[in-house]
């Protein structure tokens, strides 16, 4: 931790500890008991709070609670626990005396009555006019995963969470109502305890109290230029009311691959290879005897442990609420030499300073270390990705040769490294230090008017250290080291005023106004070394390289904002929310520094109308409508300014070279924000005392002024320039239903949600389309393989239609297909007028082959409770999308020199005129065709957790207040037609333009864990 980090922490904690406590008013005590209305048994872990104060407690195993220091007089007391509901009680607290009460909690759905976090505040969910979804800590706690996004996957309509790369510590793809931008990041904005731009991979899920997802413009416009992709508000746990308590949560488990790909045995491989008339005659096999098979998947893949331990201390006393926690998480990869570990520390403090002033701080520090193996890249002369070589390395080759060295590939021409050598002789370590902290104060100027000021600091340091051995093809006889360091530091200051006024019994309004300022600095530097005489020191002595080069860069971005919001409640039934944010960014050009983002939301609580109360089955009914504008910066700093490329070499005369500079980018003084306009119409319905709740939304988003690197004529001296061009639409609908009932002695909670979104390119600034590569550098003829076209959705694959196998010379002669031979792959001729073939296969025969975006995705959850036993599960899935399986493209060449799929045994021949597999020694057409597209639709049993809460009488004998043990499994089963590891894979990253490619990806992971929760 740097000196700046230590100083910041010291200021935060020291300033709070130095605050004097004000004199206390006369007080009394409230004691009582909480019971379940159905079973009449005591309820533990119920939060009992005196409203309008910081006084509260949590019921123990026997259901009892005690709240001391309660201001004397009439007080409103409320008891809350997820899954239960009870009306508040009004108690008269005597001076220096005790009042006793009992809370009887009903088991019922409370989704329309809970409080949710919105931007810069909270609201009762029944008063919300926008589209907001919430996940509480109880739901998160039932799924032991390293990241909170994985815990909410399948729980929230309109939110798609994909594990596009299963390697430990890898980035997840998160989309809220589709992607808007062509070139920018479409991930939602993350706000952690009010701090904008947090990294959820650095936060322990056990620290999180709630996750609220803002989806429509009425909810997100308060974040203006960063709200177009949705907003995820994460609130961490605070100190629990009552005496100090200690909690431990931990689990340990094992991970394995979800699938073992069936390949040819050594005998099958050798027989096909020898039958190939074009095989390399320098390599022969004796096919009359059986040979041992090297299963490289068993060599490289492993059963790997996963572990998590977390301990927290929390409590409150005399206006002070404290929570401190620490956790350690570690995950070994199922591919050897890959792993991820993270340690986190959290400190949350709330302090009352008299009756009108409150101070607080939220501090998180984490350190994460990840060791990655090479997947999805390293093709050609680089020796290959580890998964590709694991599957394609010849099964006739042993792991080590006769001298004890790593065995080489079967053929000298093959650019394959030994798979085990790749994982053992290549290092790629990333160390991340992350600090996020804020200090805030609230002052009640007079009842109903509160001033809040906060300052936050976020620091992220990434150190990446890489080394490639001299024995690997990528650095043959040389060795290659790289050390890169990146620092991102952000300061955020926010000041808001909130006024709340009640006008009579049923009318009220809340006004919010404020100013925010944020400054972010990015610094990066790297050193590269080539040429080492030994691999022993790796990247630790980069200066020993023969050639050392380095780069460095820095950037600064600033954002100033004014915010305002009004919430109006008329007659308790008619709701109105109006929001306006003005953002000024240093990223944009002189003519467009400022932009304005308004929104309006209205709602009608129809269920509260007198005429509707005659329907006793309807508990709640609210109709919602909203519209508004949000934005996206979508680009890095300085893109509107002209730039030069410095350090280029140029010649003067015949032999002398000098460092110089050349123009790299032209200026664009009109560059501005991407702007998204959204309409949303929704309904919230509760039935049978909210035991059944239903939510539906229909939306239409249009994003204008897309930031895009538009190609320009070569005579301009530039390849492209960043400008605002075109528009994209996302239209969709979302539905969710939750039911809660009791069947005999079993509590049953079931939830269902489904989301449908379809994007459409509306305009590309005069262009009709542009083409994308989508594939790796070793497949040049696959380019282009994807397309963005006006009138079509994003994520389209582009290429030729596969039309079977050439069966005879007559078909070859009539095809017009270059290079056609009998037994080769046949392409469909579609380029003539009105779809009539023109007899020639050329680039005009390319067409859209399918789309990588699902037509709909869904989740189904279940929770069953019987006495001390509980069972929870999550099913989720997606339907109607394609995956380009490039793994097959390299493994369906009968008779080749690398291992193949068993399907090649059905190769074409005169005696086996199949239309599904090419002939021996005939390479498949290496352009993009529909042959490599597969249906990715799937249903996945995402999680199952079986828990046991030990009775209080038993746990108390062990010296604990609460003891829960559980068994859990993640990614247990996937029902899909897709033939490879995981249908959610995306080898080209998380971009919406290059989604759906599976090319030597990390294998899918199945996990089993055992854990316990202990409270002291």
Task: Give an account of the 3D structure.
With 1016 residues, the protein is mainly beta. Helix 7 packs antiparallel against helix 8.
Summarize the structure.
With 1016 residues, the protein is mainly beta. It contains 11 helices and 52 strands.
Describe the SSE topology.
Blueprint: H1 3-17, E1 27-36, E2 47-50, E3 56-58, E4 64-71, E5 73-80, E6 84-85, E7 89-93, E8 98-107, E9 115-118, E10 121-124, E11 132-136, H2 137-141, H3 148-152, E12 159-162, E13 173-176, E14 189-192, E15 195-196, E16 208-214, H4 217-220, E17 231-236, E18 245-257, H5 266-275, H6 296-300, E19 304-317, E20 320-332, E21 339-353, E22 357-371, H7 386-392, H8 419-425, E23 426-446, E24 449-468, E25 480-503, E26 507-530, E27 547-570, E28 574-585, E29 594-604, E30 618-632, E31 643-652, E32 656-665, E33 674-687, E34 692-704, E35 707-711, E36 720-724, E37 727-743, E38 746-763, E39 769-772, E40 786-789, E41 796-799, E42 802-805, H9 809-815, E43 825-827, E44 847-851, E45 856-866, E46 869-879, E47 882-885, H10 886-889, E48 933-935, E49 938-949, H11 952-957, E50 962-976, E51 997-998, E52 1005-1015
Parallel strand pairs: 1-8, 14-17, 47-51
Antiparallel strand pairs: 1-4, 2-3, 2-5, 5-7, 6-8, 9-10, 11-16, 12-13, 14-15, 16-17, 18-19, 18-52, 19-20, 20-21, 21-22, 22-23, 23-24, 24-25, 25-26, 26-27, 27-28, 28-29, 29-30, 30-33, 31-32, 33-34, 34-37, 35-36, 37-38, 38-45, 39-40, 40-41, 41-44, 42-43, 45-46, 46-49, 47-48, 49-50, 50-52
Helix pairs in contact: 7-8
């Amino acid at each position: 931790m740097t000196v700046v980090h230590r100083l910041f922490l010291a200021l935060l904690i020291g300033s709070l500890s130095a605050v004097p406590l004000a004199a206390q008013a006369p007080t009394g005590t409230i004691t009582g008991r909480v019971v379940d209305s159905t079973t009449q048994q005591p309820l533990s872990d119920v939060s009992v709070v005196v409203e309008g104060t910081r006084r509260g407690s949590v019921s123990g195993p026997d259901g009892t609670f005690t709240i001391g220091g309660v201001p004397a007089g009439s007080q409103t007391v409320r008891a809350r626990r997820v899954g239960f509901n009870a009306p508040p009680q009004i108690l008269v607290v005597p001076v220096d005396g005790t009042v006793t009460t009992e809370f009887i909690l009903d088991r019922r759905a409370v989704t329309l009555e809970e409080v949710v976090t919105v931007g810069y505040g909270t609201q009762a969910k029944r008063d919300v006019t926008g589209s907001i979804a919430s996940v509480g800590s109880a739901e998160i706690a039932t799924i032991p995963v390293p990241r909170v996004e994985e815990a909410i996957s399948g729980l929230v309509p309109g939110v798609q969470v994909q594990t596009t790369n299963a390697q430990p510590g890898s980035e997840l793809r998160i989309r809220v109502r589709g992607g808007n931008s062509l070139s920018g990041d479409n991930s939602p904005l993350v706000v952690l305890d009010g701090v904008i731009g947090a990294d959820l991979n650095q936060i322990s899920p056990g620290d999180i109290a709630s996750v609220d997802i803002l989806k429509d413009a009425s909810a997100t416009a308060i974040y203006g230029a960063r709200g177009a992709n949705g907003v995820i508000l994460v609130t961490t746990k605070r100190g629990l009311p009552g005496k100090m308590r200690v909690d431990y949560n931990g689990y340990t488990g094992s991970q394995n691959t979800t699938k073992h790909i069936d390949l040819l045995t050594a005998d099958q491989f050798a027989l096909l290879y020898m039958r190939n008339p074009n095989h390399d005659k320098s390599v022969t096999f004796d096919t009359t005897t059986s040979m041992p098979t090297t299963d490289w998947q068993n060599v490289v893949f492993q059963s790997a442990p996963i572990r998590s331990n977390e301990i927290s201390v929390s409590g409150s006393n005399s206006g002070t609420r404290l929570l401190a926690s620490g956790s350690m998480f570690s995950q070994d990869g199922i591919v050897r030499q890959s792993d991820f570990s993270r340690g986190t520390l959290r400190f949350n403090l709330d302090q009352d300073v008299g009756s009108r002033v409150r101070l607080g701080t939220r501090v998180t520090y984490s350190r994460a270390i990840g060791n990655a193996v090479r997947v999805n890249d390293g093709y050609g002369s680089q020796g290959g990705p580890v998964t590709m070589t694991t599957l394609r390395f010849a099964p006739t080759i042993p792991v080590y040769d006769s001298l004890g060295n790593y065995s080489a590939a079967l053929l000298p021409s093959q650019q394959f490294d030994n798979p085990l050598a790749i994982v053992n002789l290549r290092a790629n370590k990333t160390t991340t230090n992350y600090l996020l902290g804020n200090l805030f104060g609230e002052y009640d100027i007079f009842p109903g008017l509160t001033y809040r000021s906060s300052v936050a600091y976020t620091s992220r340091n990434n150190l990446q250290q890489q080394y490639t051995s001299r024995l690997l093809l990528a650095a043959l006889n040389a060795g290659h080291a790289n050390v890169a360091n990146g620092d991102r530091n952000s300061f955020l200051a926010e000041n808001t005023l909130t006024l709340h006024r009640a006008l009579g019994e049923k009318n009220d309004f809340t006004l919010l106004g404020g100013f925010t300022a944020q400054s972010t600095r990015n610094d990066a530097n790297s050193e590269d070394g080539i040429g080492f005489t030994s691999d022993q020191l790796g990247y630790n002595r980069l200066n020993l390289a023969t050639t050392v080069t380095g780069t460095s860069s820095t950037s600064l971005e600033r954002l100033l904002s004014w915010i305002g919001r009004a919430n109006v409640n008329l007659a308790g039934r008619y709701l109105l929310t109006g929001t306006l944010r003005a953002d000024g960014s240093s990223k944009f050009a002189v003519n467009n520094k400022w932009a304005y983002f308004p929104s309006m939301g209205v709602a009608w609580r129809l269920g509260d109308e007198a005429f509707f109360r005659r329907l006793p089955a309807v508990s709640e009914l609210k109709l919602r409508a909203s519209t508004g504008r949000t934005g996206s910066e979508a680009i890095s700093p300085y893109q509107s300014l002209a730039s030069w490329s410095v350090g280029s070499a140029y010649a003067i005369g015949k032999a002398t070279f000098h460092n110089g500079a050349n123009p790299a980018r032209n200026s664009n003084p009109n560059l501005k924000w991407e702007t998204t306009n959204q309409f949303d119409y929704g309904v919230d319905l509760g039935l049978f005392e909210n035991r059944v709740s239903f939510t539906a939304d229909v939306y239409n988003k249009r994003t204008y002024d897309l930031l895009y690197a538009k190609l320009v004529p070569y005579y301009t001296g530039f390849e492209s320039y960043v400008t605002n061009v075109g528009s994209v639409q996302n239209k969709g609908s979302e539905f969710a239903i939750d039911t809660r009932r009791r069947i005999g002695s079993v509590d049953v909670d079931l939830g269902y949600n489904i989301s449908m979104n379809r994007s459409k390119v509306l305009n590309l600034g005069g262009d009709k389309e542009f083409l994308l590569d989508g594939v790796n550098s070793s497949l040049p003829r696959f380019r282009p393989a994807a397309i963005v076209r006006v009138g079509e959705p994003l994520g389209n694959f582009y290429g030729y239609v596969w039309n079977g196998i050439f069966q005879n010379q007559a078909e070859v002669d009539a095809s017009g297909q270059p290079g056609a031979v009998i037994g080769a792959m046949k392409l469909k001729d579609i380029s003539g007028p009105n779809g009539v073939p023109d007899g020639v296969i050329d680039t005009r025969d390319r067409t859209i082959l399918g789309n990588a975006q699902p037509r709909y995705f869904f989740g189904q959850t279940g929770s069953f409770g019987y006495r001390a036993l509980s069972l929870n599960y999550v099913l989720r899935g997606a339907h109607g999308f394609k995956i380009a399986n490039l793994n097959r493209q390299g493994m369906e060449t009968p008779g080749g020199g690398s291992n193949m799929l068993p399907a090649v045994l059905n190769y074409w021949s005169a005696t086996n005129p199949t239309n599904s597999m090419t002939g021996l020694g005939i390479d498949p057409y290496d352009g993009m065709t529909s042959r490599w597209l597969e249906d990715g639709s799937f249903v996945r049993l995402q999680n199952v957790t079986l828990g046991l809460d030990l009775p209080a009488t038993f746990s108390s004998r062990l010296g604990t207040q609460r003891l829960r043990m559980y068994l859990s499994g993640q990614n247990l089963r996937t029902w899909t037609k897709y033939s490879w590891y995981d249908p959610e894979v995306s080898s080209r990253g998380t971009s919406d333009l290059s989604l759906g490619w599976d090319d030597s990806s990390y294998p899918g992971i199945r996990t089993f864990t055992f854990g316990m929760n202990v409270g002291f």
